[in-house]
Specification:
Layout lengths: L6 H19 L3 H6 L11 E7 L4 H9 L4 E4 L6 H13 L3 E9 L7 H18 L3 E5 L14 E5 L6 E5 L7 H28 L2 E4 L10 H9 L6 E6 L9 H7 L4 E6 L1 E4 L7 E4 L8 H10 L4 E5 L6 H13 L10
Parallel strand pairs: 1-2, 1-12, 2-3, 3-4, 4-7, 7-8, 8-9, 9-12
Antiparallel strand pairs: 5-6, 10-11
Length: 337
């Protein structure tokens, strides 16, 4: 008999144990007590990073001057020699190119084979840059009825990650979406796997990001999808603000524990009266509880870069926001004076 997992089943079996497991296996009693006070002491180390285009010496010098430690470049379509030049500029300023943003591909369309070649090119560029990760969005779907973000309740086969339901009740209206979801899942397995040997050879992780592409819209489903690749070279690139309209950022982090290779940071204000479910807003102005998120990052034991994907403040103000977030204090403390 095929087993199915729904969000309710997942929460029922994991919610009561998540905090206890973290406390016993990772946090000390002293640290748990420290979380009650501002300026908590964390074992995990987070590092500031900015998104950039082509590596520009003047921009890199500026970022270094405000304490930025890493960058993620969107210039993936470059030859290795050009990438090495960019790496030298960054290293001279004490900055690491930690990731390359390949971003959207369409492996669920006729362009899949060509897109795989661009992913491989990005992996080779990343190795020359000295980056440990590429960011990849495998595909997207749309154009048919889907549940509202807060109504997703997906049932799926844990062995195949194929979906049977996406919301409570009668799912007849979502038949086209369920079909497209399953086709996208199978295509992603097929074509992303073709790049794993290149990723392994270059020593670069494929970080899969979910970006309002209509796919894998619950934390447990996305976690199952990433884990199904069963490869150390395929992980999650998680954005702390992108999916709060679906479920709380803390839920995503806990479900994705052990799979996260990198983090993005932005904020989102949930508004159920809007077709989009709300609006992206400057960090600290949205629906995310940043102190709670920092504590859960500690709980899931993520160490590494957090890359800015937000506006509304100067670079200097964003640097202060990062410091506050990393320390577990009011994220806007000293920013808007």
């Amino acid at each position: 008999m095929t087993r199915h997992i729904s969000r309710r089943d997942f929460i029922r079996t994991t919610a009561l144990t998540a905090g206890l497991a973290a406390a016993s296996s990772y946090l000390t009693p002293g640290q748990n007590a420290a979380f009650a006070a501002e300026g908590a002491s964390y074992k995990t180390e987070l590092h500031k990073a900015w998104g950039v285009g082509a590596i520009d010496a003047k921009q890199i010098e500026h970022l270094a001057s405000i304490g930025v430690e890493g960058v993620e470049t969107s210039a993936w379509d470059v030859d290795p020699a050009q990438a090495r030049e960019g790496r030298a500029i960054c290293e001279a300023n004490g900055i690491k190119i930690h990731s390359v943003m390949r971003a959207w591909t369409n492996v669920n369309t006729d362009s899949a084979a060509a897109d795989v070649q661009t992913v491989n090119r990005a992996l080779r560029a990343a190795a020359a840059y000295g980056a440990s990760t590429i960011l990849l969005v495998p595909c997207r779907v749309g154009g048919f009825a889907t549940p509202a973000p807060w109504d997703f309740d997906i049932e799926f086969d844990p062995d195949t990650c194929l979906v049977t339901k996406v919301a409570a009740g009668d799912n007849a209206q979502y038949a086209d979406y369920i079909k497209a979801q399953n086709e996208a899942t199978l295509a992603s397995f097929k074509y992303v796997k073709e790049s794993i040997p290149v990723a392994a050879y270059e020593g670069v992780t494929i970080g899969l990001e979910n970006v309002w592409n209509g796919l894998w819209c619950t934390p447990e489903f996305y976690a199952a999808f990433v884990k199904a690749f069963d490869s150390v070279w395929v992980k999650t690139y998680f954005d702390l603000g992108n999916h709060v309209k679906y479920f709380a950022t803390e839920d995503w982090l806990r479900a994705l524990k052990g799979t996260i290779c990198k983090l993005h940071i932005k904020d989102f204000k949930v508004d159920k009266s809007k077709p989009s479910g709300g609006d992206f807003v400057p960090i600290g102005k949205g629906s995310i509880d940043w102190k709670s998120v920092r504590d859960v990052i500690e709980e899931v034991a993520y160490d590494g870069f957090v890359t800015l994907e937000s506006g509304g403040y100067s670079d200097e103000q964003h640097a202060k926001i990062f410091d506050n977030f990393f320390a577990g204090v009011d994220i806007l403390d000293g920013v808007e004076e």
